[in-house]
């Protein structure tokens, strides 16, 4: 798996010159999928079964600074929000394994300083922005000058959803169909929608028992309901793209909500079943349905975890904030 990924990275970088600088730095936004990626057709190259579409979270994300130290070492020194991480931590291990895909730096030791400004308490995944920022910082350090499409393909190796975090705004990750992964990359869509809002309804920030990688593999292998997912995701993606182009929150919200709940239905039908909802998640889903039936235009989406993200427009911001105290409201377009 490591060799396959390393070869892929080598093909992407090609003959780009290495003009090493002292260090590299980059910021990448976190993102939330409106049409979810769930299921891999190739686990080594992180190739998805279906295309997905997300919205990046503006200034919320990860800033990563890289330095190549004079000494040699197999393990990078990894800092997360100023704290040195143990080499055994899963965070440091994921970064070390990703950096080892790039043998062109030899045995030089990397210092990696990563800052997440996504409140950790918000229960938002940071692996998407984390791997996107890491790849962009590497590109800066090495002077490869790769375009966004190539950066997106490299970030994909770290985490699928990271392929979308190299862009701002609405982003589509094309699943592609080539076995070598050469047509699986993300691309930015359309113009900004400044009135678009996301609300983070935190239910729990406890680490999940089954991560998305294992969760999707189990779903693909055992869930009967998964068979209809690729077709539904393709149809939902088309509708969501058109709704974004038309600034149609009702169609976008309805389709994104149904898409997320359908993904969870495929997980519920896996064996052993994957239940990411907590009792309070269900309570809040009912509440969202109730306030919507009372006339408030608000929709939800949920990733592989218990937390809920609300989708709405600026005109309803005050009413949504009043209905959901403690909601963290994000303006993806600043
Ligand atoms: O990229 P991963 O492996 O963290 O998987 C992301 C899976 C979902 O968040 C549930 C969906 C998505 O498209 O982001």
Radius of gyration: 20 Å
Low-confidence spans:
none
Globally, the shape reads globular
Main sheet properties: 7 strands, mixed
Q: SSE order, as H and E? A: HEEEEEEHEHHEEEHHHHEEHE
* CATH class term of the largest domain: Alpha Beta
Question: Which key features would you list for this structure?
Answer:
about 325 residues, alpha+beta, Ribosomal Protein S5, domain 2, Alpha-Beta Plaits, 7-stranded mixed beta sheet, 4-stranded antiparallel beta sheet, globular, binds (3R)-3-hydroxy-3-methyl-5-(phosphonooxy)pentanoic acid
Structure in words:
- The structure is a single chain.
- The chain has 334 residues and is α+β, with helices and mostly antiparallel strands.
- The protein has two domains: 2-188, Ribosomal Protein S5, domain 2 (2-Layer Sandwich); 196-330, GHMP kinase, C-terminal domain (Alpha-Beta Plaits, 2-Layer Sandwich), CATH 3.30.70.
- It is 36% helix and 24% strand.
- The chain is built from nine helices and 13 strands.
- The strands form three sheets. Strands 1, 4, 5, 6, 7, 8 and 9 form a seven-stranded mixed sheet that branches.
- The mean pLDDT is 94.
